[in-house]
Design goal:
- This protein has one domain: Hypothetical protein, similar to alpha- acetolactate decarboxylase, domain 2 (60s Ribosomal Protein L30, Chain: A, 2-Layer Sandwich).
- Helix content is 6%, strand content 52%.
- It is built from one helix and nine strands.
Length: 176
């Protein structure tokens, strides 16, 4: 399956903006239904990520997921995929954890609001003087300067759906 890049949208974010919310808003404003976050580069005051833990959970042998908050100043670089939240059956309601306002939005549902609203899955690399961390970008990650730039490729010909239905939650790639 293939798609075609229709345009590349550049945006410069303001100090204090939440990076994930800004990406959702730019997608909505520019009618990006499927796309690629080509790059997000800049300096941030705080980043929240979802990542694999360093050690398995005690007594389980299962890694699980860590939610990590890293204080700034932070140099960051990010990339990801963009699609749409998809709930084909109105009688099925996604849990709050799968939609905006679930407290830990980021990877997974990407914080979509409902049927045919923007969904993003962003990997971010964050570095400061003492550590470098990679993970899934989450709400609560704030831009520190007015020089933060993102580039989004708007794609046609294919649709990425973050689908929630009676069978569960999954990604679906279909022709447009």
């Amino acid at each position: 399956m293939s798609g075609k890049i229709e345009e590349i949208i550049y945006a410069q974010l303001e100090q204090g903006e939440d990076l994930l919310r800004a990406i959702w808003d730019i997608c909505k404003q520019n009618d990006v239904k499927t796309g690629v976050l080509l790059d997000a580069t800049g300096y941030m005051s705080k980043v929240r990520v979802q990542r694999e833990p360093h050690e398995p959970r005690p007594g389980t042998g299962i890694a699980g997921i860590d939610f990590v908050e890293i204080p700034g100043g932070l140099e960051v670089s990010a990339h990801g995929i963009i699609g749409m939240g998809w709930v084909p059956d109105e009688s099925i309601k996604p849990s709050p954890e799968l939609t905006r306002g679930g407290g830990h939005t980021g990877f997974g549902a990407g914080g979509w609001e409902g049927h045919q609203t923007p969904y993003v899955h962003v990997h971010i690399t964050v570095t400061n003087a003492s550590q470098t961390v990679c993970g899934h970008l989450m709400e609560g990650s704030y831009v520190a300067t007015k020089y933060f730039t993102i580039a989004i490729a708007k794609v046609s010909g294919v649709i990425l759906k973050a689908t929630f239905d009676k069978t569960g939650y999954y990604h679906q790639l279909v022709p447009a």
